[in-house]
């Protein structure tokens, strides 16, 4: 089954016949079986499915964290599947902000330093301006008062807000989040979701993996993944 | 300027992981230390030698002659080809420490053995004006010594307790006792260190010599030839000409001519051996610290794999991330240099002074030469960076998804290899032990690196042990050469029957044997001569020595002109069995043929011949110059007593005795010479063992740190502290024992190689002995270190809460 295969040629995200097979075990395992997908700018897309359905593999294809065995991944016209690991890192740094389930902040850097790190890597903003940009991002996620603490001193929800601020550091058009609320209590998860809605309203495109049905029912477009295929594409007005 | 966050990460990583930082810095610092002590110590030693030896303006030739005066010295100095000449008077006399003449009130006693021992006295016309073989007075020593005063050589302190202000009673040739006051020390780099000859050397004036009943003339002529690229053969020719054209016409007879290799030192061979040994071990220390660094950097990257993944995921380029780790390594290097350099330099200076003292090379510099410091700094800086390149390249190439999935419990690949399946099949082991064994083989790449480092360290330590054992066996073999207790050397040939009869009068003497010993000169094909040889004629079936045959055969009663040479002759003259040789003995030339080679005894190059034939040849039928005796008690004390009695008996009988030597003291002197090498080897073994021990501890500690997450999991499923310790201590000991076993195998060829290098340097074949003591000792050290080094971090890790352990980065 294809999802919006008829999307325009100028789609922000366009996956064509993406197959991913893992050879590491005794028997090769196919995680994605020829997925087609297009996402337009400003969409809030949820990838929904059970554990092992292939949703994380699918989002990893979009972020370039993992490579397809076959098929094409075009993001803003860039053939992500064909980029070298190095070009990919730079491209990702500027184009996609990644949010992980386990936050993945660097333990030895403070909150604000974690947010500044992508700017540092990708040479975005002047070095002396980076801190104030990072602070304004932290204000957006309501974490400015914790800016000089180390991640270990924060709760899970706070760490995830910092991770979102870090994902926004280079002002990327796309935010890719893998189970961003999976490790949070319901109140905190709600706050993160509201934050995402605000970002979409501000023009960002968000692709989010979740198995939380509550949240799945609130995204603008829900893609249900099962056994490596997109089995349902539900849009809400 | 504000430091960008990624550089702040480098700084924080250093501070946050203190134990790891200390370990890595220590691993590199210990490499710097080892290189500096070994190479720097060697450098200081060479520098001391190269400064002090030329400063003494060493003689080109030393001629021992009948008496001569200053006029002859001046004439020799003006001779063609000679740059300068100087005369000395040398005499060997017996002395006792302290005053036994009753002249000093109150009587002076010195707390050393009261046995009469020998001292070589050297006198010059004017010590202050000496230009050849110049001796350097130390500290405030009055120089030249006044009449009745004596200055000792610095190395005398190694064998004697005499100090400035002490008195010694010297027995003159006529039996009178004269008192000399010791006023200080002088360093004479051209003398043999006291420990080597077991005899001290003192410097006096010609007036003091006369007071001691020694006639006023001089008997040792030092000749200096100055010519760029002077060869030994050339020097020999010039000296021969001087002897024939200047010395002989003056009515002075030359008894012995010594022309060493120009520019060479008496202890050149031993020094060369020490130097080569230090170089070889220095290179090994270098390799060892290189391995250590590769090991620690790989471990570091494994540990930070997930962070590499995150940084890549948020836009970090490979070059940027690589630069982060390289700068981390560079800072480790900098810290290591700061720690290792001063400590290493201090120990290098200590080591050089210690070694310089043994070899009597004189005052040494306090700091290692610049090139060794540069080498150590390069090792501290560049080796870690170069070593880190490969693991960094590998670590930063990993795809983001692999990096992010690194859990610190990388067990996914276990179970496929042969070893894994074998370990899996081991049944009946307690669960924690099985876990330890399987854990050990979990990260095979890392295990291989760890093992390589530790195997090398183990091999070096055990090899050094075997080299030491080989030297000790050789010393013991050589001691077996002497099957007698004392030897008496006579100034002139004496009737054998008379000497043997008198010897048996001395209580405790069981049997005796007479030899004819004489200096000999070898005439080479090119007309040059080797005058530093000895000829010993002895009964072929003698039981007083046990020759250690290296080639050919020993003498028989039927032998006439067949001679057996020792390895010193072979090394000096490149003779082979079957070669014809022409020897000048007691002024006449004789032809001999080499029939066998025996091992040298550090008694110089010697030819052995059949006594019956040789005494007829020399016209000395029934005469001997050396008498060997055997007694019932072989202790040093008993031998000394017998020596004293023999001396008195022969002197009373009117025979002129040069010296009486106890056998135990002779073998002690030989053991002392090789003992210097043993001492060096032990120092080196300790240094390399330290590198090994620190490397072992570092590896163990990093291994456990890497397993912090695993410890969390084990704790979460109910493991007690005790069983966690058991798992890691077993793992540590398994790695330790594996490296010991690998080192054991490698140490065999390595020690063979080291022994071979040593043999080449000192020119004595060594009896190779594999040291099982070193093997057992190292096993104990390795097991203990692995256990302790795993226990400490395992203890620390088990104190961490389960939650923190699981989220450990």
What does this structure look like?
- The complex is a heterodimer of chains A (237) and B (809).
- Chain A is built from 7 helices and 10 strands.
- With 237 residues, chain A is of the alpha/beta class.
- Chain A has a single domain, classed as P-loop containing nucleotide triphosphate hydrolases (Rossmann fold, 3-Layer(aba) Sandwich), CATH 3.40.50.
- Chain A has a 6-stranded mixed sheet with strand order 6-7-8-3-9-10, sandwiched between helices. Chain A has a 4-stranded antiparallel sheet with strand order 2-1-4-5, with helices on one face.
- Chain A is globular, with a radius of gyration of 17 Å.
- Among the domains of chain B are: 163 residues, no CATH class; 200 residues, no CATH class; 147 residues, no CATH class.
- With 809 residues, chain B is of the alpha+beta class.
- In chain B, strands 2-3-8-5-7-6 form a 6-stranded mixed β-barrel. Chain B has a 6-stranded mixed β-barrel with strand order 12-13-18-15-17-16.
- In chain B, 53% of the residues lie in helices and 19% in strands.
- In chain B, α7 runs antiparallel to α14 and α7 runs antiparallel to α21.
- The two termini of chain B are 29 Å apart.
- At the A-B interface, α2, α3 and α4 of A face α1, α8, α9 and α11 of B.
Radius of gyration of chain B: 34 Å
Number of helices of chain B: 23
Distance between the termini of chain B: 29 Å
**Spans of at least 5 consecutive residues with low confidence of chain B:** 105-115, 408-412
Helical residues, percent of chain A: 25-40%
- Give the CATH level 1 class of chain A: Alpha Beta
Q: How would you write the strand order of the largest sheet of chain B?
A: 2-3-8-5-7-6
What is the succession of H and E elements of chain A?
EEEHEEHEHHHEHEHEE
Count of DSSP H/I helices of chain A: 7
Q: How much of the residues of chain A is beta strand, in percent?
A: 25-35%
**Integer average pLDDT of chain B:** 81
Query: How many distinct beta strands of chain B?
Result: 20
Amount of helix of chain B: 40-55%
Strand content of chain B: 15-25%
């Amino acid at each position: 089954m294809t999802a919006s295969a008829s999307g325009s040629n100028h789609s922000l995200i366009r996956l064509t016949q993406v197959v991913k097979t893992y050879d590491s075990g005794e028997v090769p395992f196919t995680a994605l079986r020829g997925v087609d997908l297009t996402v337009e700018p400003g969409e809030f897309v949820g990838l929904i499915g059970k554990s092992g359905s292939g949703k994380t593999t699918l989002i990893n294809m979009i972020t370039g964290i993992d490579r397809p065995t076959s098929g094409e991944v075009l993001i803003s016209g860039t053939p992500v599947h064909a980029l070298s690991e190095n070009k990919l890192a730079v491209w990702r740094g500027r184009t996609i902000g990644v949010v992980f389930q386990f936050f993945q902040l660097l333990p030895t850097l403070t909150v604000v330093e974690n947010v500044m790190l992508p700017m540092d890597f990708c040479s975005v903003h002047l070095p002396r301006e980076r801190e104030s940009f990072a602070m304004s991002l932290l204000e957006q996620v309501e974490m400015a008062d914790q800016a000089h603490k180390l991640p270990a001193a924060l709760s899970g929800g706070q760490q995830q807000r910092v991770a979102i601020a870090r994902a926004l550091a280079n002002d990327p058009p796309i935010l890719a989040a893998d189970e961003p609320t999976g490790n949070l209590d319901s109140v905190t998860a709600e706050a993160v979701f509201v934050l995402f809605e605000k970002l979409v309203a501000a023009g960002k495109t968000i692709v989010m993996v979740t198995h939380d049905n509550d949240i799945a029912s609130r995204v603008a477009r829900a893609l249900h993944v099962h056994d490596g295929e997109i089995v349902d594409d539900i849009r809400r007005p | 300027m504000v430091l960008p966050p990624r550089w702040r990460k480098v700084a924080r990583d250093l501070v946050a992981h203190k134990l790891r930082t200390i370990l890595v810095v220590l691993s590199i610092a210990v490499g710097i230390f080892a290189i500096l002590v070994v190479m720097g110590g060697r450098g200081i030693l060479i520098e001391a030698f190269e400064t002090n030896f030329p400063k003494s303006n060493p003689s080109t030739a030393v001629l021992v002659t009948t008496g001569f005066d200053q006029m002859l010295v001046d004439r020799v100095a003006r001779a063609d080809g000679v740059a300068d000449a100087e005369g000395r008077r040398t005499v060997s006399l017996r002395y006792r420490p302290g005053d036994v003449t009753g002249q000093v009130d109150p009587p002076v006693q010195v707390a050393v053995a009261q046995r009469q021992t020998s001292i070589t006295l050297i006198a010059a016309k004017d010590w202050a004006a000496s230009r050849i073989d110049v001796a350097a007075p130390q500290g405030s020593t009055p120089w030249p010594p006044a009449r009745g005063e004596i200055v000792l050589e610095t190395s005398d302190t190694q064998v004697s307790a005499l100090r400035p202000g002490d008195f010694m009673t010297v027995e003159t040739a006529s039996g009178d006792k004269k008192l000399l006051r010791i006023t200080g020390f002088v360093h004479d780099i051209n003398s043999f260190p006291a420990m080597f000859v077991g005899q001290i050397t003192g410097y006096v004036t010609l007036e003091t010599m006369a007071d001691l009943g020694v006639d006023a003339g001089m008997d040792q002529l030092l000749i200096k030839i100055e010519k760029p690229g002077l060869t030994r053969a050339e020097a020999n020719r010039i000296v021969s000409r001087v002897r024939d054209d200047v010395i002989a016409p003056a009515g002075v007879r030359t008894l012995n001519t010594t022309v060493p290799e120009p520019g060479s030192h008496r202890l050149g061979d031993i020094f060369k051996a020490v130097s080569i040994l230090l170089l070889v071990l220095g290179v090994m220390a270098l390799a060892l610290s290189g391995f250590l660094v590769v090991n620690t950097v790989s471990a570091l990257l494994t540990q930070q794999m997930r962070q590499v993944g995150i940084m890549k995921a948020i836009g970090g380029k490979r070059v940027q991330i690589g630069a982060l780790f390289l700068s981390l390594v560079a800072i480790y290097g900098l810290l290591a240099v700061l720690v290792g350099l001063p400590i290493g330099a201090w120990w290098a200076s200590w080591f050089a002074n210690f070694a310089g003292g043994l070899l009597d090379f004189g005052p040494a510099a306090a700091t290692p030469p610049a090139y060794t410091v540069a080498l150590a700094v390069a090792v501290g800086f560049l080796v870690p960076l170069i070593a880190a390149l490969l693991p960094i390249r590998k670590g930063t190439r990993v795809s983001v998804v692999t990096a992010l999935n690194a859990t610190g419990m990388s067990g996914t690949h276990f179970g496929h290899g042969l070893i894994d399946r074998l370990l899996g099949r081991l049944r009946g082991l307690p669960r924690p032990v099985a876990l330890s064994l399987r854990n050990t083989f979990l990260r095979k790449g890392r295990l291989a690196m760890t093992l390589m480092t530790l195997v090398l360290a183990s091999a070096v330590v055990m090899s050094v042990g075997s080299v030491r054992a080989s030297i000790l066996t050789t010393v013991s073999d050589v001691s077996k050469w002497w099957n007698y207790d004392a030897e008496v050397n006579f100034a002139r040939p004496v009737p054998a029957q008379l000497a043997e009869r008198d010897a048996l009068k001395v209580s405790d003497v069981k049997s005796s044997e007479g030899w004819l010993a004489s200096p000999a000169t070898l005439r080479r094909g090119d007309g040059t001569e080797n005058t530093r040889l000895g000829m010993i004629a002895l009964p072929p079936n003698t039981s007083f020595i046990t020759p250690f045959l290296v080639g050919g055969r020993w003498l028989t009663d039927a032998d006439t002109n067949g001679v057996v040479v020792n390895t010193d002759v072979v090394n000096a003259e490149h003779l082979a069995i079957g070669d014809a040789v022409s020897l000048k003995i007691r002024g006449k030339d004789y032809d001999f043929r080499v029939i066998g080679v025996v091992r040298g005894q550090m008694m110089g190059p010697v030819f052995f011949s059949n006594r019956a034939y040789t005494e007829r040849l020399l016209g000395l039928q029934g005469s001997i110059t050396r008498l060997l005796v055997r007694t019932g008690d072989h202790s040093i004390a008993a031998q000394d007593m017998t020596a004293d009695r023999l001396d008195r008996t022969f002197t009373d009988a009117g025979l002129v005795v040069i010296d009486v030597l106890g056998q135990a003291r002779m073998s002690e002197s030989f053991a002392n010479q090789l003992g210097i090498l043993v001492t060096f080897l032990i120092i080196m073994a300790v240094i390399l063992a330290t590198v090994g021990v620190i490397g072992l501890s570092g590896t163990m500690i990093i291994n456990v740190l890497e397993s912090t997450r695993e410890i969390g999991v084990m704790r979460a499923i109910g493991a007690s502290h005790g069983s966690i310790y058991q798992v890691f201590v077993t793992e540590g000991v398994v790695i330790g024992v594996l490296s010991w076993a690998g080192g054991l195998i490698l140490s065999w060829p390595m020690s063979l190689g080291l022994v071979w290098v040593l043999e080449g340097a000192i020119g004595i074949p060594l009896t190779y002995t594999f040291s099982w003591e070193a093997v057992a000792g190292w096993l104990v050290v390795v097991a203990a270190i692995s256990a302790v080094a795993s226990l400490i971090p395992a203890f620390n890790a088990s104190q961490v809460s389960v939650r923190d352990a699981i989220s450990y980065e």
